[in-house]
Amino acid sequence: MAVTIKNIADACNVSRGTVDRALNNRGKINPEKKELILAKAKELGYKPNYIARSLKRGKTNTIGIIVFNLYNEFFSSLINSMEEKAKEKDYHIDLALTHYDKDTEKKCVESMIRRQVDGLILCSVNNKKDYSSWLQKFNIPVVSLANKISNKIPYISVDDRRAMKDATQYVADKGYDRIIYISPPLAYEDTHNIYALKQRFEGFSQVNMEHESIIIESKDYIRELETINILEYKTAILCTSDIYALEVLNYLKEKKIKIPSQVGVMGFDNINMLKYIEPHLTTVSYPIEQIGAIAIDSISQAIENGNKIQNMVITHEIIIGESL
Amino acid sequence: MAVTIKNIADACNVSRGTVDRALNNRGKINPEKKELILAKAKELGYKPNYIARSLKRGKTNTIGIIVFNLYNEFFSSLINSMEEKAKEKDYHIDLALTHYDKDTEKKCVESMIRRQVDGLILCSVNNKKDYSSWLQKFNIPVVSLANKISNKIPYISVDDRRAMKDATQYVADKGYDRIIYISPPLAYEDTHNIYALKQRFEGFSQVNMEHESIIIESKDYIRELETINILEYKTAILCTSDIYALEVLNYLKEKKIKIPSQVGVMGFDNINMLKYIEPHLTTVSYPIEQIGAIAIDSISQAIENGNKIQNMVITHEIIIGESL
């Protein structure tokens, strides 16, 4: 049985109000009596009931975090860094995964709101103004990572457009004259939040190649790749994520196509596992752990001091490997 | 501002008690009045305050999950599967990471208890009877995964001893006559929970090889490996995790030692990323996602029906690759 304030009051022969003042360090109380009460509370193994306290203080010290899933190392690194930073700041993490489903995401948000999280950090599948208005009405700090929701919700990320433009320019400068660009479907735009993907595509489109680029935007990108004569020009395959690039590497190896002498490959994200991959993948660094730590820092300050959270752009970098 | 029971009561011109009976489907209430109240609650956008409700019902629908970290894909797959199963069962996940620190783990447990989680699932760094007695006194269901805490705490895992014995026998049957066994330090036994590691080592020790095995139990295993003439006999390097095996593969490739013709390598875990690794790693499957789902299933039943949670052993399997 949990020890209650009443138990301590009975043991010390004082009122519950006196115990409350001693434990919470407020109001007038005789110092000796206070010491006695604190010693007794310790002796009895008293633990404050955080739930009851949350009701009083209107703060649960919990940050709700909603991401797609943890299959991609990108997200597990993000959660890892946020949990570390949150613990340092005395916050808990309430984790929910949407598996790219918009309704699931809304249910996760509602459920977290009912559980009175102090703030929300989202990699959102939903977008548009309706969604950001809906989020704002809960009146707690919200931060979006990787996928921008709207100008109303603070957003911490790399500059995806600039990063993909730099990547494409790097490919062009390496002497490739055609790019096969592989991305998840951009046609999802009307229904899903594909802000980052769209930015990347725009960045890619800003660089001219000698031969017309081929755009594969499909979950079945390997099957689409099979229909293309990839050896026709000096071709590089540029992927919007390392995971896609790894699948492409596997496909090319299976087809005995040499990388990079016959075809170049470039990824995006720079996930940790790349250190075990041959050939070393050329990619773009996405400092996801830094972004996670900044997000927690910003949101905890917003929770505690009411600070407005600023948009933030974190620097990317081309990581030179052996696949281009 | 959140809509309260009082707002609904005022709007319907009834007492708060009546609204409470309507919303919570209990006590006597005129059906028409109930319908009116429910319609008004919906119209006003009433959301039950789960925290206040938790206080009354003594249940938060939250399961606390404490693991080492999410750097190893093993744990992110575990969390992913548990979150999915928990959501299906209408539970939330409160996640904390210990980074192998015993005090951090205890603080995580205490903090979750204060937040009144309904149950706890641990990959524990702590062990021994003192710890399991301490956990038991909180009087909520507790499950340990991967690392057994004591006979008092239910434990869901593969049979680590048997799995490593099978792996070792597989190496011997492939014609190798010496094994270099790489494990995290077994000397941690007195201070840390290394139950699974110890079981694996015992399984390994049950198989006789022609030449004496070399045991490397160090975090600096690559440096230790450098001091050994690994080409002396027909040698296989058997690792207690895939991550170690991947580091060993990288080392051997750097030294231009051919795998498996000069040295064989075997891992443990069968993490998903192995599909991108060359040569395909021979390893032992550890069905971590299945274990995660079973753990949530068991603990939710224990929370709801008071069922005793049974120990469970999940079947492992040798995964034949090209590295042996």
Automatic annotation (TrEMBL), chains A, B:
Q: Which UniProt keywords apply?
A: DNA-binding, Transcription, Transcription regulation
Give the signal peptide, or none: none
Taxonomic lineage: Bacteria, Bacillati, Bacillota, Clostridia, Lachnospirales
Q: Which Pfam families match?
A: LacI, Peripla_BP_1
Can you say what this protein is called?
LacI family DNA-binding transcriptional regulator
Q: Which organism is it from?
A: Vallitalea guaymasensis
Recorded hits in Gene3D superfamilies, A to Z, give: 3.40.50.2300, lambda repressor-like DNA-binding domains (1.10.260.40)
Q: Where is the HTH lacI-type domain?
A: 3-57
Q: Does DNA-binding show up as a keyword for this record? A: yes
Q: Is 4Fe-4S there in the keyword field?
A: no
